[in-house]
Amino acid sequence: MIDPATLMGPLWTLLAFVGLGWLAARRLAVDPRPIATLLIYLIAPLTFFRGLLLGGPTPGYLLLTAALFATASLLALLVNRLARGWLPPQESALLAFSAGTGNTGYFGLPLAMLLLPPAGVTLYLFCILGVTLYEFTVGFYLSARGQFSVRQSLAKIARLPLVYAFLAALLVSGLGLELPAPVREGLEVFPATYTLLGMMIIGMTLGRVSIRELDARFIAACVAVRFGLWPLLALAAVLGGQALAPLPAELALALLLLGVVPMAANVVVVAMELGIRPEKGALAVLATTLAAPLLIPLYLTGMARLAGLD
Predict the structure, then answer these.
(1) In angstroms, what is the C-alpha Rg of the chain?
(2) HSE on the CB side for 31, CA within 13 Å?
(3) Of 12, 42, 95, 145, which is most buried by a Cβ count within 10 Å?
């Protein structure tokens, strides 16, 4: 049984990081763009390189990664097709990117570590790896196409190091190589840094936003996809899996958690890197992040009961 009270502390801590980012932008005039670049090109790749090596890639784990990558990509392509008819190009590209992902890393990973046993955290890591690979391949391409040509968009993807970090981790693991202890210790700082800066960048962007940037139609579409469509997909995946074969409880809960996290902070990070309306993205991310402390305990408790996990 999921105790909602155990979730409230971590949820409010993550929102406090957003507040720190807002203060940094308003009082210290911190520019979030270099931090977005650091997250994309350095911190995220090293975080997931470490996570992959600790988890030990197996065919079963990589199948989870592939399934989440395919699900996120198909959902984003569908939303992109639907959104082009009623939103401007940049907004439709941003909505399509957000549709395939959620704040599974900065926000969801601390919750997974609280709710799941170590084996469940490993399963969750390989699930979010699929989502993250989507973000920096198909998702990045869809976002870039809101402003750049096909060739320019593909060139930008080729420069992203996360895919290379993924391949490097598979190579190191496949060859049975052991990283030196100082390297392993050095990599330990990156997960916490990833969460802290990822949440702070939302606040930093909001610190530079005026009320004129508020777009109720865009925010409503983002909320509908994130807190309407994704929970249904996650619950359907768990119930469908249980109908086909016994599904480990930790895997079922990991999938449900993927479905209830708020919008991805990487919506802001990628929009800032590509220059496609990061302010609108930040407001939409804030709306779902503020709702998270209320909705996540309700969603998880109700969905766990429907899936027979309580």
Answers:
(1) 18
(2) 5
(3) 95
User: Exposure pattern of 225-244 as b/e (b: 16+ CB <10 Å)?
Assistant: bbbeebbeebbebbbebeee
Q: What is the pLDDT of residues 221-279, one digit of tens each?
A: 888 999 999 999 999 999 998 888 888 889 999 999 999 998 887 787 777 767 766 77
List of residues 6+ apart from 81 with CB closer than 8 A: none
Rounded Cα–Cα distance for residues 160 and 167 (Å): 13
What are 48-66's pLDDT values in tens digits? Answer: 888 888 777 788 888 999 9
Tokens of 289: 């992040």
Closest among 190, 203, 193 to 16, alpha carbons compared: 203
| Cβ 144 vs Cβ 51: under 8 Å | no
Rounded CA-CA distance 240/242 in Å is 5
The answer on pLDDT for 4 being more than 70 is: no
HEC per residue, the chain: CCCHHHHHHHHHHHHHHHHHHHHHHHHCCCCHHHHHHHHHHHHHHHHHHHHHHHHCCCHHHHHHHHHHHHHHHHHHHHHHHHHCCCCCHHHHHHHHHHHCCCCCCCCHHHHHHHHCCHHHHHHHHHHHHHHHHHHHHHHHHHHHCCCCCHHHHHHHHHCCCHHHHHHHHHHHHHCCCCCCHHHHHHHCCHHHHHHHHHHHHHHHHHCCCCHHHCCHHHHHHHHHHHHHHHHHHHHHHHHHHHHHCCCCHHHHHHHHHHHHCCCCCHHHHHHHHHCCCHHHHHHHHHHHHHHHHHHHHHHHHHHHHHCCCC
Domains of the chain: 4-205+218-306 (1.20.1530)
pTM of the model: 0.83
Q: For 122-172, write each residue's pLDDT tens digit.
A: 889 889 888 988 988 888 887 776 666 777 767 777 777 888 888 888 888
